[in-house]
Amino acid sequence: MIEDLEIKVKEILKEDETILNYYVAKNCKSSYFIIAKNENNFITFRISDHPTSAFYSNRTFNARKNLEELINDIRKYMDTTKWYTFKYQDYFSLKVILMMPSDRIQLYIDNTMGIFDNSLTGIVFYQSIKKRKNRWEFNSVSESFQKELRKLFAAGLISDYRQSEDEILVYINQAGKFIMDYVESKYIDRFKEDEKDIDFKYIIVPDD
To answer: What confidence tens digit (pLDDT) does each residue in 178-202 have?
Structure first.
């Protein structure tokens, strides 16, 4: 069925909608769509036979359904849900994550006492900053960056990679890279102006 999904979804799209990206996870049990409408509106959804993180807010469709029923469910969802409006602040946040000197500064999700694994509180991000060999400093991120990171994670544009039980690294996934590249020409000039003021040790997201 996975082989037919992209073709079937393309058949139900309206004139102002297009598949920006479709990819299948390495385990071949989950597939992901990014649909664009006009210039700034996007929707992402997942088709799988197993659940995902409680902090992921996009729809997951049951891959065990027959194909016709699944496609009907997807079209209904696209017609009734609120589409994601990708703003400059989203672009800025993804861009700075991509530009972070990963050998010295990394983003993590706090899993103290299992708060992430057990969804005990809202998701909390922090930075790990290398001071010198084998010595790292851990800092909270700014309120504006925290808010953006939560939004991007819920939208499925950044993901987590577990290095150990409590070390959960954050990275931009394929969906985030595709959308960032898609709007690059619209936001790159403003970003170049803001870039000179970026402090990677304490990132503040600009206002509108």
So the answer is: 999 999 999 999 999 999 999 999 9
